[in-house]
Amino acid sequence: MGKQMTEMLKGTLEGIVLAILSGRPAYGYEITARLRDQGFSDIAEGTIYALLVRVEQRGLVDVEKVPSEKGPPRKVYSLNAQGREYLDEFWRTWSFLAERLEQLREGGKQT
Amino acid sequence: MTAESNEQKNRYLQYLETVTGPLEDKRRYRRHKARVRALPADYRTAVDALERYMQFFGPGKADSLLAMLDDLADLFEQSAADGIPIREVVGEDPVEFAETFLRNYPEGQWIHRERERLADAIDRAADHATGDEP
């Protein structure tokens, strides 16, 4: 993953994680695995975990501890009402940004 | 109850807090150390290295620091149990991971205090320049 990709992901990864949780609840490693399947190959498990700690601190997700066959109980995260609101805002911001960037690109082609 | 005995009680509670507060923190810290010792050797080495870095840049308040250490141990215990390689846990750039992780525990971080100080100083200067100062 290039430097540019890493930098751009920094601001959007939190929204991406919430978007994944909006489908169904998941635990940390499931989220990382799903991101890898979708082509985000170099995302660190620890980075996703840190973001999950953050969205939990901010009350955007509910957490349930589920016993696991191997190792300690897993924390399963699900998006709550506040998280959905936050995610709506994330998508609105994203649309705005994507639209403006597209305009910039089109403008660049004309000159 | 007279004011004097109230004051004495408060002093006694203060004394108790200064004695038992840190003791409970120490217990929590020892529990954390025991969890780290129980990890597979390579994971333990990784946690030790991260803790060292976080000593310099992490929270200065005991509560925040202990919460951070617990979260770090959670991550590595779970990763070891799931067999996730250390490189996948920490990523290509360990500093990047450490910084993302540390941002969750701003309380008592000196860099956090300095950021606030900078923002306050600029607020004052900017308000003064526009005559907005109350």
Automatic annotation (TrEMBL), chain A:
Xref: Pfam families: PadR
Domain Transcription regulator PadR N-terminal: 17-88
UniProt xrefs under InterPro entries: Metal_resp_DNA-bind_regulator, Tscrpt_reg_PadR_N, WH-like_DNA-bd_sf, WH_DNA-bd_sf
SUPFAM superfamilies attached to this UniProt entry: Winged helix' DNA-binding domain
PANTHER family registered for this protein in UniProt: PADR-FAMILY TRANSCRIPTIONAL REGULATOR, TRANSCRIPTIONAL REGULATOR RV3488
Protein name: PadR family transcriptional regulator
Origin species: Planomonospora sphaerica
TrEMBL record, chain B:
Alphabetized SUPFAM superfamilies for the sequence: BH3980-like
InterPro entries named in the record: UCP029876 (IPR008316)
Name the record gives this protein: DUF1048 domain-containing protein
